[in-house]
Each structure stands twice: as C-alpha cells, then as structure tokens.
C-alpha cells in the first residue's frame, strides 16, 4: 500500500477511536475508510482488520472509564460474559439470516430510540447508584445476550443499543452507560476476532498501525466525555443515531 493510503487510514482510525470511546459507532468511520482504500479485499478481511483496530481502542476506553467512573464489578462481569457468548453465537449464525431482512427492523429500532431520547430531555441525565440485585443482573444479562448476538450477526449501531439499554433498564446516565457499553463492545469484538483470526481474515500490520491511532483517539474521546459529561454525550449520541438512520435508510432504498 502507498503511504498516503496508510496515513489516511491511520487518521480515520484516530477519529473512529474518539467517537467510539464516547458513544460507540467507530465502525461507521473505519469500515468505509477500509473499503475505499482496499476495494479488492474480501469483506471478511475488512471486518477482521476493523475489529483488530477497534478492540484495542475499546480496551483502552474501557480501562480509562474504569479508573475514573465508579462501576459495579459483578455487573461488569455479567455484561462481559453474556455479550461474548451471544456475539460468538451470532457470528456462527451469520450466514443463516440475510442482512437485508435485518436492516428494516434495525432502522425502526433506531428511529424509536432517537425519538424517545429527543422527547425525554432528562433521559440519561440522572444516575441512580445500582444495588446489585438478581433482577438487575437478569436485565443486564438479557440485554447483553440480545445486543451481543446482534453484533455478531450484523453489527451497525451496537454501541447505541448498549447505551440506550443501560440507561433505560439499569437507570444510569449517559456517562456510566458509555463506560458499561465499552465492556460489552470489547467482548463482542473479542468474540468476532476469535472467528476472523483463525481463518486468516486480518491484515495484522495495517490493523496494528490503525490500533495505535484508535487507542490515541479513544483516550481523547474518554477525556472529552469525562470533561463535558452526560449532556455532551447525549448530543453526540443523537447525532450518531441520526447518521445510522440515514445510512441504513439509504442502503434499504438502494437495495430496492
């Protein structure tokens, strides 16, 4: 590859890491960039390389959040285990459910999430300190199972779904939901890589260079999230969900 292309991918990886650390959705930046730079590369290799870069940034963000935001370890463990198992299962079933069937359903869900978040001004602005109860852990397990499976089988909007679920059902604010979502995203990425690496669908040299930039971006994203708080993350969240809605809507129209 020419150095101009490599540097452009490194730049996009940095931007993706910044956005992903705060509200998720780094794949919206990284995957199109990889596809544009490597038009002859198999989609599985594109996704595998993207996951390698993303998992490093997500791990960095998760660690940074864990140091600065108070999180309950039993809750993190439940989210991590169930997200990994279901994402692995989703990846194994990826050929069984065509993506054109999933797109309309995901589009509707994203529109509902955007309208709900926009209408409820206080949504995600108040954090309730969680008491670890069987009911809370059951909700966390169910949400992680569903969203993890979705990420393994399709993917777009996973971070947004995690954040919305944690706010709605665990009663945390956007800042804590972003921190929790990093744990879920890290485990779903790890599950996906457990498929892509053994089958040779990862460009390690390029992926590792992008990973360094992704980590740098994630450190900036976490700092911005912690500095400006839940109100700032809410705005980014609505922007990201709106972009996802436009992207999926366009793909559905083109497919028709």
UniProtKB/TrEMBL annotation:
Q: Does the keyword Transmembrane helix apply?
A: yes
Q: Does the keyword Transmembrane helix apply?
A: yes
Give UniProt keywords alphabetically: Cell membrane, Membrane, Transmembrane, Transmembrane helix, Transport
UniProt main location, coarse: membrane
Query: What are the transmembrane regions?
Result: 73-94, 101-119, 139-167, 203-226, 233-253
Q: How does it sit in the membrane?
A: Multi-pass membrane protein
Q: Which residues form the signal peptide?
A: none
Its localization reads: Cell membrane
A single GO cellular-component term from the record reads:
plasma membrane
Q: Return the similarity comment.
A: Belongs to the 4-toluene sulfonate uptake permease (TSUP) (TC 2.A.102) family.
What is the protein name given in its UniProt record? Probable membrane transporter protein
| Source species of the chain | Acinetobacter haemolyticus CIP 64.3 = MTCC 9819
């Amino acid at each position: 590859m020419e150095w101009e292309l490599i540097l452009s991918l490194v730049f996009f990886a940095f931007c993706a890491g910044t956005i992903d650390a705060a509200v998720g959705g780094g794949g919206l930046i990284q995957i199109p960039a990889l596809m544009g730079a490597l038009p002859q590369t198999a989609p599985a290799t594109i996704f595998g390389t993207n996951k390698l870069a993303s998992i490093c940034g997500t791990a960095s963000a998760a660690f940074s959040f864990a140091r600065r935001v108070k999180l309950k370890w039993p809750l993190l463990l439940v989210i991590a285990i169930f997200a990994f198992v279901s994402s692995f299962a989703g990846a194994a079933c990826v050929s069984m459910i065509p993506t054109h069937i999933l797109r309309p359903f995901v589009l509707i869900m994203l529109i509902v999430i955007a309208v709900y978040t926009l209408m409820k001004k206080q949504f995600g602005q108040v954090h309730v300190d969680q008491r670890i109860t069987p009911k809370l852990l059951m909700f966390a397990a169910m949400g992680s199972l569903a969203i993890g499976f979705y990420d393994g089988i399709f993917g777009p909007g996973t971070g947004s779904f995690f954040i919305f679920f944690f706010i709605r059902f665990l009663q945390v604010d956007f800042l804590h939901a972003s921190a929790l979502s990093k744990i879920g995203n890290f485990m779903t990425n790890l599950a996906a890589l457990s498929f892509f690496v053994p089958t040779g669908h990862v460009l390690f040299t390029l992926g590792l260079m992008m990973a360094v930039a992704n980590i740098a971006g994630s450190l900036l994203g976490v700092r911005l999230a912690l500095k400006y708080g839940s109100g700032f993350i809410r705005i980014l969240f609505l922007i990201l969900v709106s972009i996802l809605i436009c992207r999926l809507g366009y793909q559905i129209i083109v497919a028709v």
